[in-house]
Amino acid sequence: MDPLVSGRFAPPPLYGLVLAGGRSTRMRRDKAALAYQGRTQLERAMALLTPHVARAFVSVRADQGSDAVRARFAQITDAHENIGPLAGLLAAQAQHPEAAWLVLACDLPFLDEATLAHLLRARAPARTATAYCSSHDGLPEPLCAIYEPRSREPLAAYAAAGKQCPRKFLLGADTLLLDQPNPRALDNVNTPEEYGSAMTTLTAQSSATTRHITVQYYALLREQAGRREEALLTAARTPRELYAELSSRYPFSLAPEVLRVAINAEFGEWSAPLADGDAVVFIPPVAGG
Amino acid sequence: MRWCSFRRSPAVDNARLGKPLSVFRFTRTSIEPQALRAQLADPACGGYAAFEGWVRDSHEGLRVRHLEYEAFEALAVREGERILAEAIARFGVAHAACLHRVGDLAIGELAVWVGVSAPHRHEAFLACRYIIDEVKQRVPIWKKEHYVSGDSGWVNCERCAAPSAHAHGAHRHD
Predict the structure, then answer these.
(1) B100-143 tens-digit pLDDT
(2) What pTM, to 2 d.p., does this model score?
(3) B138/A contact by beta carbon, under 8 A
(4) Which end of chain B, C or N, has fewer beta carbons within 10 A?
(5) pLDDT average, residue stretch A84-109
Protein backbone atom coordinates (compact mmCIF):
# COMPACT_ATOMS: atom_id res chain seq x y z
CA MET A 1 0.00 0.00 0.00
CA ASP A 2 1.08 3.55 -0.66
CA PRO A 3 2.80 4.67 2.57
CA LEU A 4 1.19 8.07 2.22
CA VAL A 5 -2.24 6.48 2.25
CA SER A 6 -1.52 4.03 5.03
CA GLY A 7 0.47 6.53 7.12
CA ARG A 8 -1.54 9.66 6.83
CA PHE A 9 -5.05 8.82 5.68
CA ALA A 10 -5.87 5.26 6.60
CA PRO A 11 -7.81 5.30 9.86
CA PRO A 12 -6.19 3.54 12.80
CA PRO A 13 -7.30 -0.07 13.36
CA LEU A 14 -10.56 -0.41 15.23
CA TYR A 15 -10.64 -2.68 18.26
CA GLY A 16 -13.71 -3.43 20.33
CA LEU A 17 -14.19 -3.33 24.08
CA VAL A 18 -17.23 -4.48 26.02
CA LEU A 19 -17.27 -3.03 29.51
CA ALA A 20 -18.14 -5.80 31.95
CA GLY A 21 -16.19 -4.63 34.98
CA GLY A 22 -19.03 -2.81 36.70
CA ARG A 23 -20.20 -3.69 40.17
CA SER A 24 -23.91 -3.91 39.26
CA THR A 25 -24.79 -2.49 42.69
CA ARG A 26 -28.29 -1.34 41.76
CA MET A 27 -29.08 -4.59 39.92
CA ARG A 28 -27.78 -6.62 42.86
CA ARG A 29 -26.71 -9.26 40.28
CA ASP A 30 -23.89 -9.33 37.73
CA LYS A 31 -25.30 -7.44 34.72
CA ALA A 32 -22.99 -9.17 32.25
CA ALA A 33 -24.58 -12.50 33.19
CA LEU A 34 -28.21 -11.40 32.79
CA ALA A 35 -29.83 -13.48 30.10
CA TYR A 36 -32.12 -12.25 27.36
CA GLN A 37 -33.62 -14.87 25.08
CA GLY A 38 -31.07 -17.48 25.99
CA ARG A 39 -27.92 -15.39 25.75
CA THR A 40 -26.13 -13.41 28.41
CA GLN A 41 -25.79 -9.67 27.97
CA LEU A 42 -22.07 -10.11 27.52
CA GLU A 43 -22.51 -12.71 24.78
CA ARG A 44 -25.00 -10.46 22.99
CA ALA A 45 -22.68 -7.47 23.12
CA MET A 46 -19.66 -9.46 21.96
CA ALA A 47 -21.68 -11.00 19.11
CA LEU A 48 -22.78 -7.55 17.93
CA LEU A 49 -19.33 -6.07 18.23
CA THR A 50 -17.06 -8.79 16.87
CA PRO A 51 -17.96 -8.58 13.14
CA HIS A 52 -17.09 -4.87 13.08
CA VAL A 53 -13.68 -4.84 14.73
CA ALA A 54 -10.23 -6.28 14.13
CA ARG A 55 -10.02 -7.60 17.70
CA ALA A 56 -12.64 -7.75 20.44
CA PHE A 57 -12.00 -7.72 24.18
CA VAL A 58 -13.99 -7.75 27.35
CA SER A 59 -12.95 -5.33 30.05
CA VAL A 60 -12.79 -6.92 33.51
CA ARG A 61 -11.72 -6.11 37.04
CA ALA A 62 -8.72 -8.04 38.34
CA ASP A 63 -10.97 -10.33 40.40
CA GLN A 64 -13.31 -11.21 37.51
CA GLY A 65 -10.85 -12.74 35.03
CA SER A 66 -11.75 -16.36 35.67
CA ASP A 67 -15.51 -16.15 36.10
CA ALA A 68 -17.48 -18.33 33.72
CA VAL A 69 -19.28 -15.55 31.83
CA ARG A 70 -16.07 -13.64 31.01
CA ALA A 71 -13.42 -16.35 30.77
CA ARG A 72 -14.26 -17.36 27.18
CA PHE A 73 -13.37 -13.94 25.75
CA ALA A 74 -10.06 -12.10 25.31
CA GLN A 75 -9.76 -9.80 28.31
CA ILE A 76 -8.20 -6.52 29.31
CA THR A 77 -7.90 -6.04 33.04
CA ASP A 78 -8.50 -2.68 34.70
CA ALA A 79 -5.41 -0.98 36.14
CA HIS A 80 -7.43 1.54 38.17
CA GLU A 81 -10.06 0.88 40.80
CA ASN A 82 -13.17 2.81 41.69
CA ILE A 83 -13.13 5.23 38.78
CA GLY A 84 -16.06 3.70 36.93
CA PRO A 85 -16.21 2.81 33.24
CA LEU A 86 -13.24 4.99 32.33
CA ALA A 87 -10.94 2.40 33.93
CA GLY A 88 -11.64 -0.14 31.17
CA LEU A 89 -10.93 2.28 28.34
CA LEU A 90 -7.74 3.56 29.99
CA ALA A 91 -6.43 0.01 30.35
CA ALA A 92 -7.30 -0.81 26.72
CA GLN A 93 -5.61 2.32 25.40
CA ALA A 94 -2.54 1.64 27.51
CA GLN A 95 -2.29 -1.87 26.10
CA HIS A 96 -2.95 -0.93 22.44
CA PRO A 97 -2.22 2.78 22.05
CA GLU A 98 -2.27 2.55 18.24
CA ALA A 99 -5.91 1.41 18.07
CA ALA A 100 -9.18 3.23 18.02
CA TRP A 101 -11.68 1.68 20.44
CA LEU A 102 -15.32 0.97 19.87
CA VAL A 103 -16.59 0.84 23.43
CA LEU A 104 -19.89 -0.80 24.40
CA ALA A 105 -21.52 -1.08 27.78
CA CYS A 106 -22.80 -4.56 28.46
CA ASP A 107 -26.12 -3.35 29.85
CA LEU A 108 -27.71 -2.29 26.54
CA PRO A 109 -30.26 -5.00 25.77
CA PHE A 110 -31.90 -2.98 22.98
CA LEU A 111 -28.66 -2.21 21.13
CA ASP A 112 -29.18 -3.22 17.52
CA GLU A 113 -27.11 -3.77 14.43
CA ALA A 114 -28.48 -0.62 12.76
CA THR A 115 -27.24 1.56 15.61
CA LEU A 116 -23.74 0.07 15.49
CA ALA A 117 -23.59 0.22 11.70
CA HIS A 118 -24.61 3.89 11.67
CA LEU A 119 -21.94 4.77 14.22
CA LEU A 120 -19.29 2.97 12.17
CA ARG A 121 -20.33 4.63 8.91
CA ALA A 122 -20.30 8.06 10.51
CA ARG A 123 -16.98 7.55 12.35
CA ALA A 124 -14.68 10.57 12.02
CA PRO A 125 -11.11 9.30 12.60
CA ALA A 126 -9.72 12.83 12.54
CA ARG A 127 -11.85 13.83 15.54
CA THR A 128 -11.24 12.68 19.12
CA ALA A 129 -14.37 10.55 19.32
CA THR A 130 -17.62 9.66 17.57
CA ALA A 131 -20.67 9.20 19.77
CA TYR A 132 -24.43 9.40 19.89
CA CYS A 133 -26.45 12.11 21.61
CA SER A 134 -28.74 10.59 24.17
CA SER A 135 -32.33 10.58 22.97
CA HIS A 136 -33.31 11.37 26.58
CA ASP A 137 -31.15 14.35 27.50
CA GLY A 138 -29.13 15.23 24.38
CA LEU A 139 -25.82 14.61 26.16
CA PRO A 140 -23.13 12.32 24.68
CA GLU A 141 -23.58 8.58 25.19
CA PRO A 142 -20.06 7.50 26.16
CA LEU A 143 -20.68 3.76 26.26
CA CYS A 144 -21.59 3.16 22.63
CA ALA A 145 -18.87 5.30 21.07
CA ILE A 146 -15.60 5.23 19.17
CA TYR A 147 -12.50 6.70 20.84
CA GLU A 148 -9.67 7.51 18.43
CA PRO A 149 -5.99 7.04 19.47
CA ARG A 150 -5.69 10.80 19.93
CA SER A 151 -8.11 10.58 22.85
CA ARG A 152 -5.64 8.51 24.85
CA GLU A 153 -3.47 11.27 26.31
CA PRO A 154 -6.28 13.69 27.19
CA LEU A 155 -8.25 10.85 28.77
CA ALA A 156 -5.28 9.79 30.89
CA ALA A 157 -4.79 13.40 31.97
CA TYR A 158 -8.51 13.72 32.73
CA ALA A 159 -8.40 10.67 35.00
CA ALA A 160 -5.15 11.79 36.58
CA ALA A 161 -6.91 15.03 37.53
CA GLY A 162 -9.39 12.95 39.52
CA LYS A 163 -12.26 13.22 37.05
CA GLN A 164 -14.33 10.13 36.22
CA CYS A 165 -17.26 11.17 34.07
CA PRO A 166 -16.84 10.03 30.45
CA ARG A 167 -19.83 12.13 29.32
CA LYS A 168 -18.17 15.31 30.50
CA PHE A 169 -14.96 14.23 28.83
CA LEU A 170 -16.75 13.85 25.49
CA LEU A 171 -18.52 17.20 25.96
CA GLY A 172 -15.18 18.92 26.42
CA ALA A 173 -13.43 17.04 23.61
CA ASP A 174 -13.62 17.27 19.81
CA THR A 175 -16.47 14.76 19.58
CA LEU A 176 -18.64 14.11 16.53
CA LEU A 177 -22.14 13.74 17.93
CA LEU A 178 -24.81 11.79 16.05
CA ASP A 179 -28.54 11.40 16.40
CA GLN A 180 -29.65 7.86 17.21
CA PRO A 181 -31.35 6.01 14.34
CA ASN A 182 -33.34 4.04 16.92
CA PRO A 183 -34.09 6.24 19.95
CA ARG A 184 -34.49 3.30 22.35
CA ALA A 185 -31.39 1.40 21.28
CA LEU A 186 -29.18 2.79 24.05
CA ASP A 187 -31.65 2.54 26.94
CA ASN A 188 -29.74 0.81 29.68
CA VAL A 189 -30.87 -1.52 32.37
CA ASN A 190 -29.71 -0.86 35.91
CA THR A 191 -32.36 -2.25 38.21
CA PRO A 192 -34.30 -5.52 38.49
CA GLU A 193 -37.44 -3.58 37.49
CA GLU A 194 -35.79 -2.28 34.32
CA TYR A 195 -34.54 -5.79 33.53
CA GLY A 196 -38.07 -7.20 33.84
CA SER A 197 -39.49 -4.52 31.61
CA ALA A 198 -36.73 -5.01 29.01
CA MET A 199 -37.42 -8.74 28.94
CA THR A 200 -41.10 -8.09 28.29
CA THR A 201 -40.37 -5.63 25.49
CA LEU A 202 -37.81 -7.87 23.81
CA THR A 203 -40.09 -10.90 23.97
CA ALA A 204 -42.92 -8.89 22.39
CA GLN A 205 -40.60 -7.58 19.66
CA SER A 206 -39.34 -11.07 18.99
CA SER A 207 -42.81 -12.58 18.61
CA ALA A 208 -43.72 -9.72 16.26
CA THR A 209 -40.68 -10.34 14.06
CA THR A 210 -40.49 -14.14 13.95
CA ARG A 211 -43.09 -16.68 12.92
CA HIS A 212 -43.64 -20.41 12.99
CA ILE A 213 -43.68 -21.73 9.44
CA THR A 214 -44.07 -25.28 8.17
CA VAL A 215 -42.20 -26.10 4.99
CA GLN A 216 -42.90 -29.21 2.90
CA TYR A 217 -40.39 -30.34 0.32
CA TYR A 218 -41.09 -32.24 -2.87
CA ALA A 219 -39.06 -33.93 -5.58
CA LEU A 220 -35.58 -32.46 -6.12
CA LEU A 221 -35.93 -30.03 -3.19
CA ARG A 222 -36.97 -32.92 -0.91
CA GLU A 223 -33.82 -34.80 -1.87
CA GLN A 224 -31.59 -31.75 -1.45
CA ALA A 225 -33.12 -30.81 1.90
CA GLY A 226 -32.96 -34.43 3.03
CA ARG A 227 -36.46 -34.20 4.50
CA ARG A 228 -40.13 -34.03 3.57
CA GLU A 229 -41.20 -31.42 6.05
CA GLU A 230 -39.96 -29.21 8.85
CA ALA A 231 -41.28 -26.64 11.29
CA LEU A 232 -39.23 -23.45 11.52
CA LEU A 233 -39.12 -20.35 13.65
CA THR A 234 -37.98 -17.75 11.15
CA ALA A 235 -37.56 -14.01 10.78
CA ALA A 236 -38.25 -14.32 7.04
CA ARG A 237 -41.09 -11.99 6.11
CA THR A 238 -41.84 -13.40 2.65
CA PRO A 239 -41.40 -16.69 0.77
CA ARG A 240 -38.51 -15.02 -1.06
CA GLU A 241 -36.66 -14.38 2.20
CA LEU A 242 -37.55 -17.85 3.45
CA TYR A 243 -36.12 -19.52 0.34
CA ALA A 244 -32.94 -17.46 0.70
CA GLU A 245 -32.66 -18.55 4.33
CA LEU A 246 -33.19 -22.22 3.44
CA SER A 247 -30.75 -21.97 0.53
CA SER A 248 -28.02 -21.07 2.99
CA ARG A 249 -28.80 -24.25 4.91
CA TYR A 250 -29.35 -26.75 2.09
CA PRO A 251 -27.55 -27.27 -1.25
CA PHE A 252 -30.52 -26.17 -3.36
CA SER A 253 -29.63 -26.08 -7.05
CA LEU A 254 -32.88 -24.44 -8.21
CA ALA A 255 -32.97 -20.65 -8.48
CA PRO A 256 -36.16 -19.00 -7.21
CA GLU A 257 -36.84 -17.85 -10.79
CA VAL A 258 -37.68 -21.43 -11.83
CA LEU A 259 -39.82 -22.19 -8.77
CA ARG A 260 -43.35 -21.30 -7.81
CA VAL A 261 -44.49 -20.93 -4.26
CA ALA A 262 -47.61 -22.20 -2.48
CA ILE A 263 -48.90 -20.88 0.82
CA ASN A 264 -51.47 -23.01 2.66
CA ALA A 265 -51.94 -25.27 -0.39
CA GLU A 266 -52.68 -22.46 -2.82
CA PHE A 267 -50.39 -20.72 -5.28
CA GLY A 268 -48.95 -17.54 -3.76
CA GLU A 269 -46.64 -14.63 -4.43
CA TRP A 270 -42.93 -14.55 -3.58
CA SER A 271 -43.43 -11.18 -1.92
CA ALA A 272 -46.58 -12.10 0.05
CA PRO A 273 -46.27 -11.46 3.79
CA LEU A 274 -45.91 -14.70 5.76
CA ALA A 275 -48.13 -15.17 8.79
CA ASP A 276 -47.53 -17.26 11.87
CA GLY A 277 -48.66 -20.83 11.18
CA ASP A 278 -48.40 -20.66 7.39
CA ALA A 279 -47.48 -23.81 5.45
CA VAL A 280 -45.14 -23.10 2.56
CA VAL A 281 -44.18 -25.28 -0.39
CA PHE A 282 -41.60 -24.31 -2.99
CA ILE A 283 -42.68 -25.91 -6.26
CA PRO A 284 -39.93 -27.13 -8.58
CA PRO A 285 -40.57 -27.19 -12.35
CA VAL A 286 -43.43 -29.64 -12.82
CA ALA A 287 -43.48 -32.67 -15.11
CA GLY A 288 -46.82 -34.45 -14.83
CA GLY A 289 -48.36 -36.54 -17.57
CA MET B 1 -56.40 -47.91 -8.69
CA ARG B 2 -58.41 -45.54 -6.54
CA TRP B 3 -61.50 -46.05 -8.57
CA CYS B 4 -63.55 -45.86 -5.42
CA SER B 5 -62.55 -42.23 -4.90
CA PHE B 6 -64.41 -41.42 -8.09
CA ARG B 7 -67.40 -43.49 -7.20
CA ARG B 8 -67.72 -41.97 -3.72
CA SER B 9 -67.34 -38.46 -4.99
CA PRO B 10 -70.42 -36.26 -4.68
CA ALA B 11 -69.54 -35.07 -8.18
CA VAL B 12 -70.42 -38.52 -9.48
CA ASP B 13 -73.84 -38.37 -7.87
CA ASN B 14 -74.30 -34.94 -9.36
CA ALA B 15 -73.45 -36.38 -12.78
CA ARG B 16 -76.35 -38.80 -12.45
CA LEU B 17 -78.58 -35.82 -11.87
CA GLY B 18 -77.38 -34.25 -15.10
CA LYS B 19 -74.66 -32.05 -13.62
CA PRO B 20 -71.09 -32.18 -14.94
CA LEU B 21 -68.62 -34.67 -13.51
CA SER B 22 -65.37 -32.81 -12.96
CA VAL B 23 -62.96 -34.84 -10.85
CA PHE B 24 -59.15 -34.93 -10.60
CA ARG B 25 -57.63 -37.66 -8.45
CA PHE B 26 -54.38 -39.54 -7.76
CA THR B 27 -53.88 -43.26 -7.46
CA ARG B 28 -51.05 -45.44 -6.22
CA THR B 29 -52.22 -48.52 -8.12
CA SER B 30 -52.73 -49.24 -11.81
CA ILE B 31 -55.28 -47.24 -13.78
CA GLU B 32 -58.13 -49.20 -15.45
CA PRO B 33 -59.52 -47.00 -18.28
CA GLN B 34 -62.52 -49.22 -19.02
CA ALA B 35 -63.95 -48.73 -15.57
CA LEU B 36 -63.26 -45.00 -15.61
CA ARG B 37 -64.90 -44.60 -18.99
CA ALA B 38 -68.19 -45.88 -17.64
CA GLN B 39 -68.35 -42.96 -15.23
CA LEU B 40 -68.54 -40.50 -18.12
CA ALA B 41 -71.49 -42.19 -19.84
CA ASP B 42 -74.46 -39.87 -20.29
CA PRO B 43 -77.53 -40.28 -22.55
CA ALA B 44 -77.00 -36.70 -23.75
CA CYS B 45 -73.48 -37.48 -24.96
CA GLY B 46 -72.65 -38.78 -28.40
CA GLY B 47 -68.88 -38.59 -28.10
CA TYR B 48 -66.18 -39.70 -25.71
CA ALA B 49 -62.47 -38.87 -26.06
CA ALA B 50 -59.73 -40.11 -23.80
CA PHE B 51 -56.00 -39.69 -23.51
CA GLU B 52 -53.68 -42.22 -21.93
CA GLY B 53 -50.11 -41.29 -21.09
CA TRP B 54 -47.80 -44.34 -20.97
CA VAL B 55 -44.34 -44.78 -19.55
CA ARG B 56 -41.90 -44.77 -22.46
CA ASP B 57 -38.53 -46.53 -22.46
CA SER B 58 -36.47 -43.56 -23.60
CA HIS B 59 -36.11 -39.84 -22.99
CA GLU B 60 -33.87 -37.55 -25.00
CA GLY B 61 -31.67 -40.43 -26.07
CA LEU B 62 -31.42 -42.04 -22.63
CA ARG B 63 -32.86 -45.49 -22.01
CA VAL B 64 -35.36 -45.34 -19.17
CA ARG B 65 -35.76 -48.30 -16.81
CA HIS B 66 -38.63 -47.00 -14.70
CA LEU B 67 -40.28 -43.80 -13.52
CA GLU B 68 -41.23 -42.32 -10.20
CA TYR B 69 -44.05 -39.75 -9.86
CA GLU B 70 -44.58 -37.53 -6.86
CA ALA B 71 -47.30 -34.89 -6.30
CA PHE B 72 -48.20 -32.11 -3.90
CA GLU B 73 -51.65 -33.62 -3.80
CA ALA B 74 -53.58 -30.95 -1.90
CA LEU B 75 -52.72 -28.25 -4.41
CA ALA B 76 -52.61 -30.62 -7.40
CA VAL B 77 -56.23 -31.68 -6.91
CA ARG B 78 -57.33 -28.04 -6.66
CA GLU B 79 -55.40 -26.98 -9.73
CA GLY B 80 -56.41 -30.12 -11.64
CA GLU B 81 -60.09 -29.51 -10.92
CA ARG B 82 -59.73 -25.88 -11.98
CA ILE B 83 -58.40 -27.15 -15.32
CA LEU B 84 -61.34 -29.54 -15.72
CA ALA B 85 -63.81 -26.77 -14.92
CA GLU B 86 -62.09 -24.52 -17.47
CA ALA B 87 -62.38 -27.24 -20.12
CA ILE B 88 -66.09 -27.75 -19.42
CA ALA B 89 -66.76 -24.00 -19.56
CA ARG B 90 -64.57 -23.33 -22.58
CA PHE B 91 -65.61 -26.23 -24.83
CA GLY B 92 -69.10 -26.98 -23.54
CA VAL B 93 -68.37 -30.65 -22.83
CA ALA B 94 -70.59 -32.60 -20.42
CA HIS B 95 -68.08 -34.39 -18.16
CA ALA B 96 -64.31 -34.37 -17.68
CA ALA B 97 -62.08 -36.39 -15.39
CA CYS B 98 -58.39 -37.05 -14.88
CA LEU B 99 -56.59 -39.73 -12.89
CA HIS B 100 -52.83 -39.59 -12.35
CA ARG B 101 -50.52 -42.26 -10.93
CA VAL B 102 -47.96 -41.55 -8.22
CA GLY B 103 -45.17 -43.85 -7.02
CA ASP B 104 -43.00 -46.21 -9.06
CA LEU B 105 -44.10 -47.09 -12.59
CA ALA B 106 -42.70 -49.66 -15.01
CA ILE B 107 -42.27 -49.18 -18.77
CA GLY B 108 -45.63 -49.44 -20.54
CA GLU B 109 -47.74 -48.64 -17.49
CA LEU B 110 -50.41 -46.00 -17.64
CA ALA B 111 -49.25 -42.79 -15.92
CA VAL B 112 -52.23 -40.54 -16.60
CA TRP B 113 -55.75 -40.90 -17.95
CA VAL B 114 -57.99 -38.07 -19.16
CA GLY B 115 -61.58 -38.70 -20.23
CA VAL B 116 -64.16 -36.32 -21.64
CA SER B 117 -67.73 -36.93 -22.79
CA ALA B 118 -69.69 -34.41 -24.87
CA PRO B 119 -72.72 -34.18 -27.15
CA HIS B 120 -70.37 -34.20 -30.19
CA ARG B 121 -66.84 -35.45 -30.93
CA HIS B 122 -65.25 -32.13 -31.88
CA GLU B 123 -65.47 -30.48 -28.45
CA ALA B 124 -64.56 -33.78 -26.75
CA PHE B 125 -61.26 -33.92 -28.66
CA LEU B 126 -60.48 -30.25 -27.98
CA ALA B 127 -61.26 -30.47 -24.27
CA CYS B 128 -59.21 -33.65 -23.85
CA ARG B 129 -56.21 -32.03 -25.52
CA TYR B 130 -56.61 -28.88 -23.43
CA ILE B 131 -56.75 -30.83 -20.16
CA ILE B 132 -53.61 -32.91 -20.71
CA ASP B 133 -51.63 -29.88 -21.96
CA GLU B 134 -52.60 -27.77 -18.95
CA VAL B 135 -52.05 -30.59 -16.46
CA LYS B 136 -48.50 -31.03 -17.70
CA GLN B 137 -47.74 -27.34 -17.29
CA ARG B 138 -49.63 -26.32 -14.16
CA VAL B 139 -50.23 -29.19 -11.77
CA PRO B 140 -47.54 -29.82 -9.11
CA ILE B 141 -46.53 -33.31 -10.16
CA TRP B 142 -42.90 -34.33 -10.60
CA LYS B 143 -41.34 -37.19 -12.53
CA LYS B 144 -38.02 -38.80 -11.77
CA GLU B 145 -36.53 -40.94 -14.51
CA HIS B 146 -34.32 -43.88 -13.57
CA TYR B 147 -32.12 -44.77 -16.51
CA VAL B 148 -30.71 -48.11 -17.60
CA SER B 149 -27.26 -46.57 -17.08
CA GLY B 150 -27.97 -46.29 -13.33
CA ASP B 151 -28.33 -42.49 -13.39
CA SER B 152 -31.55 -40.74 -12.51
CA GLY B 153 -32.95 -37.26 -12.82
CA TRP B 154 -36.00 -35.10 -12.10
CA VAL B 155 -37.44 -34.12 -15.46
CA ASN B 156 -37.26 -30.35 -16.14
CA CYS B 157 -35.24 -29.76 -12.93
CA GLU B 158 -31.75 -30.93 -13.73
CA ARG B 159 -30.95 -28.21 -16.24
CA CYS B 160 -32.73 -25.32 -14.64
CA ALA B 161 -30.08 -22.85 -15.63
CA ALA B 162 -32.64 -22.17 -18.38
CA PRO B 163 -35.38 -20.41 -16.41
CA SER B 164 -38.15 -21.18 -18.89
CA ALA B 165 -37.52 -24.93 -18.88
CA HIS B 166 -40.51 -25.72 -16.68
CA ALA B 167 -43.04 -24.05 -18.92
CA HIS B 168 -42.81 -26.85 -21.47
CA GLY B 169 -43.11 -30.54 -20.67
CA ALA B 170 -40.01 -32.19 -22.06
CA HIS B 171 -41.52 -35.64 -21.97
CA ARG B 172 -44.44 -35.63 -24.35
CA HIS B 173 -46.79 -38.53 -24.74
CA ASP B 174 -48.57 -37.20 -27.80
Answers:
(1) 999 999 999 999 999 999 999 999 999 999 999 999 999 999 99
(2) 0.57
(3) yes
(4) C
(5) 93
- In this prediction, residue A44 has a pLDDT band, given cuts at 50, 70 and 90, of confident
User: ipTM of the predicted structure?
Assistant: 0.83
Residues from chain B that touch A266, judged by Cβ atoms under 8 A, are 75, 78
CB contact under 8 A, A218 and B70: yes
Q: Does A251 touch chain B (CB under 8 A)?
A: no
Task: Give me the helix-helix angle, B73-91 and B121-138, nearest 10°.
Answer: 150
Q: Do B143 and A218 touch (CB under 8 A)?
A: no
